Amino acid sequence: MTYTPAENRYDSMVYNRCGNSGLKLPAISLGLWHNFGGDANHDNKRAICQTAFDLGITHFDLANNYGPPPGSAEHAFGSILAEDFKGYRDEMIISSKAGYNMWDGPYGEWGSRKYLIASCDQSLKRLGLDYVDIFYSHRFDPDTPLEETMGALDHIVRSGRALYVGISNYNSEQTRKAAAILNDLGTPLVINQPSYSMVNRWVERDGLKETLKDLGVGSICFSPLAQGLLTDRYLDGIQEGSRGSRPGFFNQKMVNENSQAALGKLNDLAQSRGQTLAQMALAWVLRNGGITSALIGASRPQQVIDCAAAIKNLSFTEAELAEIDALADEDKIKLWANS
Ligand SMILES: NC(=O)c1ccc[n+]([C@@H]2O[C@H](COP(=O)([O-])OP(=O)(O)OC[C@H]3O[C@@H](n4cnc5c(N)ncnc54)[C@H](OP(=O)(O)O)[C@@H]3O)[C@@H](O)[C@H]2O)c1
């Protein structure tokens, strides 16, 4: 079926400026880490992307290794771009990354110039694009000089492969160094992509939010729903078909008596705010404009609809924040204790 984007797609989404740059990102962005691999239904992938775009979600986030198998999410999204979004490329922000293990041998991961530039070329081929909007160093490489990694990002922009550069999973100290190198090169750092949610608050302990504000760099936080834990999906244990029911990155130990009791109370609080638990979790990361965009994943279109509606209420009372702090305590939920 031919897809025609909704005419009112820009009516309700909020767009936030990404640091001091000219780039605006939707408050809710869609990531294709899960549910876009070779084993997933193609029509569902299309429906998820169409629903997102119809709701003003203009930003789609990928990485070389998303799948399984690695590369298949970019390949699927390339097909979807050709099938459904021809003529809409200039309304979309598409990102990809390189940093994790992608191919055999010494040049298939981390942060060398060799790996980053080759991987970017491979991503463009899979996506069927001439350029991505944002290209990221997916993780800090302790063994490669940061000047080399940032130099590769600068080259990727100067050679027309990307418009902006970002870093992901870099802490405050690493971010300051990366930003300084990129400034000297004349390709400013536009965005950092850290993990962040009510139950994963390392960016607050690290001071990353303040660092990014100070540097004028934007932020997009991944797994704001803690991979689905902060939704109604785990209130009664691990539901069949959920991410937690499948082998992978979701630690099943996260769903335990303590977390379920806390999730039940958080769900009550969300309902008292007129929100679903997922909506409240997204509103929480976006509160006070501290984060440019919340980067969600989805296994079905309805989840995207639910998440996009989070922007209707992004403010919290002091009492609500205190209750969330008491309930969504990393130690109690023992979720990311070793993260
Ligand atoms: N830079 C990095 O190192 C890094 C790492 C991880 C992720 N990311 C990026 O961040 C994106 C999002 O990560 P994530 O998928 O872990 O994010 P998430 O939003 O925390 O979790 C997404 C999962 O939550 C469930 N869900 C979503 N909306 C829901 C709703 N309204 N109601 C009930 N359940 C809902 C779905 O689980 P079910 O599948 O169980 O339905 C969905 O797959 C990725 O796609 C990727 O782009 C980046």
Description:
The protein is globular and about 50 Å long. It has an eight-stranded parallel barrel with strand order 3-4-5-6-7-8-9-10, surrounded by seven helices. Strands 1-2 form a two-stranded antiparallel ribbon. It has one domain (15-333): NADP-dependent oxidoreductase domain (TIM Barrel). Helix 1 crosses helix 2, helix 2 (72-84) packs parallel to helix 3 and helix 8 (257-272) packs antiparallel against helix 11. Strand 6, helix 4 and strand 7 (162-168) form a beta-alpha-beta unit. With 339 residues, the protein is an alpha/beta fold. Helix content is 38%, strand content 14%. The protein has helices spanning 42-54, 72-84, 113-127, 146-158, 172-185, 202-206, 208-215, 257-272, 277-286, 301-308, 318-327, 330-333, and strands spanning 15-17, 24-26, 28-31, 59-61, 93-98, 132-137, 162-168, 189-193, 218-222, 293-296. The model has no long low-confidence stretch (mean pLDDT 95). Bound molecules: NADP nicotinamide-adenine-dinucleotide phosphate (NAP). The site of NADP nicotinamide-adenine-dinucleotide phosphate has 30 residues, from strand 10 and helix 10.
